[in-house]
Amino acid sequence: MPKRSDIKSILIVGAGPIVIGQACEFDYSGTQACKALKNEGYKIILVNSNPATIMTDPDVADKTYIEPITPEILKKIIKKEKPDAILPTMGGQTGLNVSLEVSESGFLKENNVELIGADEEAISKAEDRSKFREAMKKIGLKTPKSFTSQNLDDSVKKLDEIGLPVIIRPSFTLGGTGGGIASTIKEFIEIASNGIDSSPTNEILVEESVAGWKEYEMEVVRDKSDNCIIICSIENVDPMGVHTGDSITVAPALTLTDKEYQKMRIASIDILREIGVDTGGSNVQFAINPKNGDMVVIEMNPRVSRSSALASKATGFPIAKIAALLAVGYTLDELKNDITRTTPASFEPAIDYVVTKIPRFAFEKFPGSEPTLSSSMKSVGEAMSIGKNFKESIQKALRSLETGLNGFNSITKTNNIEEIENELKKTSPNRLLYLADALRLGISTERIHELTFYDPWFIQQISEIIEIENNLISKGMPNDKDNIVWLKTQGFSDNRLAELTSCKESDIRTLRENFNIKPVFKRVDTCAAEFKSETAYMYSTYGDSIFSETLFCESKPSNKDKVIIIGGGPNRIGQGIEFDYCCVHASYALKESGVESIMVNCNPETVSTDYDTSDRLYFEPLNFEDLIEIINIEKSSGNLLGIIVQFGGQTPLKLAKELENNKIDIKILGTSQDAIDLAEDRDRFQKLISNLNILQPRNGIATSSDEAIDIVNDIGYPVVIRPSYVLGGRAMEIVHSDEQLKKYMKEAVVVSGDNPVLIDSYLRDAIEVDIDALCDGDDIYIAGILEHIEEAGVHSGDSACSIPPFSLKKKILDELERQVRLLARDLNVIGLMNTQFAIKDDKIFILEVNPRASRTVPFIAKVLGKPLAKIATKIMLGNKINSMDLKEININHFAIKEAVFPFKRFTGVDTILGPEMRSTGEVMGIDRDFGMAFAKSQIGSGSRIPTEGSVFVSVKDSDKDKILNPVSDLFSLGFDIYATHGTAEFLNNNNIQTKKINKVLQGSPHIVEMISEKKISLVLNTTETPQAIKDSKSIRRSALESETPYYTTVSGANAVVMAIKAIKNNEISIKTIQSFGQLLS
Questions:
Q1: What are 272-298's pLDDT values in tens digits?
Q2: Long-range contacts, stretch 803-809, CB < 8 angstroms, 24+ apart
Q3: Lowest CB count within 10 Å: 208, 218, 420, 567, which one?
Q4: What pTM did the predictor assign?
């Protein structure tokens, strides 16, 4: 059937900020949906609070609202824009929940707005645990024995029906938030209570534990005519009990018999029909008992999901695009497969390779958290790899993680079998590596299966890899072609082979080159080579075995001018979607300039790895060996102008250094490697700023604990200390004492390797500023000056910040611009540059310079309405700033960038902010009024703005005078003020009526009880020394768990008071980003 003509405009609901469980994959799916439906002639209205996404670029939708994703805001947009339909299935759990809430209120019916893709009944049936269970029963499919409950007492009573252990799954949550596995009654009470609080409907499903069973997923698409296809089967290498987002997964499913697969395929389609998802993609999860083959249904997502992105990248089938087109009436047979350009979309994908996804974790960012995996997701990113067999695929995936692995590296120093077996019992992120170590110690595959429940086939595959390694260690590297080729087919990198045979990576590469052994590039074609692929989406392989006679290269490099863009690899804290955004814009700029764009990346979640973002895509690990092979194949035809390394964060910069060290003849486009090094090298950088008469905090460089103490004795405590060459403030700390310093030095050396640690005087109460600029070697364009709301000492990625600055004098702003211009010229920057300053007592101190893209680029681009990364790329190609439309812009509104944190996922972790970055994403609040812009940023990040109630205040002595104004304002606004003894006395002495409340150590009734009982509406808590931080941790943690807004800096307190005033005095108004752009002058 043709597309619907009764619909003219569609509102697409985005997913909001990047959080654990809901990451870049929804930018990818949302962007695909917007583009596909816009191309069909529909007016597209978008709401999404995340400025770091491609989908919120002003040219993607017709009307773009960067506003909080709440029912209230959605209703305002509907009233204003009057869309005919809402597509809720592209925005993850957030988009689904908000759309459902608005629909259930009757508002959509009142305003003649239709839900497309999945209707109210289908969403409710899939997401409501009890309704889903009944639906499965109706079609004869088993679910684990279970019950639903909405209060703790009831759930404890019902527990006897099932018995322990159980899995607790909150309804309508993302990434298993609030859920977990309980083996004891104490664990059950804790997890059930948290789950009830986490669920928007206060409902949990408690089901018998099927931990240890095998887990599978089916990605299914259905159209209005009831055509159903399976896009991809996915098998979890980790057994049930670990959230699928935290599991290592493979596609296609490798250990299913055809009979088992067909049974699961039929069940998946039956589930879609019963739930009522009649247009679009869904993900269905199953568990199979390995002992008897019993199959149960775990859950289904009636929307595009995290696994949809993986399935899309694994097969080449654009699930989100097709799902969006099905939602407006097309059928699968009417749509073309974009990869082959000949087969219809109803042609079920087939793949003749193995795809592996491995998650990346960030437990090191959250001291005190247990690195244990459960049914609540904790990974912050993932890498995907493609190989012709499992061994090749998984070894490529391990080295794609960028965690120092080049294969199955040994991670244990012990030969104690009992210790290794204990590690195997734990569901830890490194379990697969412990498994390899267990095999090295001779623990049998049967015993490993008994301890881990991993399928014996996977254990056997890894056992064969370890056997090869042992052979290499004892006999050395073979020197005949057949054996070297065979090693490469088993997934061994040159680096790993060198490590195992005690030689250099360059020796292995030379040996390969002498035999002309190199990988070929195959195309991801959706049809297992049955039809010709017209899309250059490629992966490297050495083939199934040395007997692969038909192994030929499908890369077919063009004879055009071309540029390689190196992506950012797997998402991690400090290097996230913002860098992928810049890479995508580089690709767009190259296309506009008539230059072929070649993307290299291994992140399946992102827009950069979409099949149609670049002219050519290589889905490969971002390391030296793999990059060299791509460079060589692309050099073989056409004119390779160079590579772009300044957009993907630290990953491409490290690769550029390796290319230079190995004397590889390739041009780095834009700022030179030497200038990047100069900015990172403390000695060289100091000479530069000294010559330019720019101030810097007193500092020193130390390679030992003794050196560090000598430097600190000269500078004085407190100091900021960090290793060199890191991103995201990794292992950065504010140190107050010799004891703390010595402890840090022991730990930091591991992080920084041979690099020294950098020590700077900590500028208390300074204002931090970020400036992004463009430079073409002659002219400089200051794109944006961002004033941080939190004072210096909080990592720039974690601080809220405002453009334009809200408190800085013009004289200071002029001087900041002057210094940026000096630096850009002296560093000979070609492209983007980010500079960070601290301002104290009207003195400007430089903190650091990054002659590359920063994480603030997408945010500033949205505010200015100018694609900064695209412009920077054109500058790298030789265009000049004076030839572009780049004028100084007067911004007469405020845009606030606020960070979003995953603290709730990590039990017992302190939420206090510091110099090490811990946020996973960001939101933007935009308004003519600063207070309202800040309020929107807080609401968008999941916080509430209280307008009444009680405020708890506890601040360090040095903040007492500064906290008077905001607390006085809160008192005037009608809030009750509570404080601990010292702060209460101070506030009462300053005529602010304050009630005293006990600290926890002083006994009940105390402040943590009040917060936990939700008697406090707002917490203002500042602290500094390690002991004071430790003592007040329970206050911050209880505020987090009770969802009480809390601020840990005075500047944050001032901002939230302005937000409260704005919310109390005005109604929230909405405006498109395009409208704000028209106001710029």
A1: 999 998 888 899 999 999 999 999 999
A2: 803/859, 803/860, 803/863, 803/891, 803/894, 803/895, 803/897, 804/891, 804/894, 805/769, 806/894, 806/930, 807/767, 808/767, 808/769, 808/839, 809/842
A3: 208
A4: 0.94
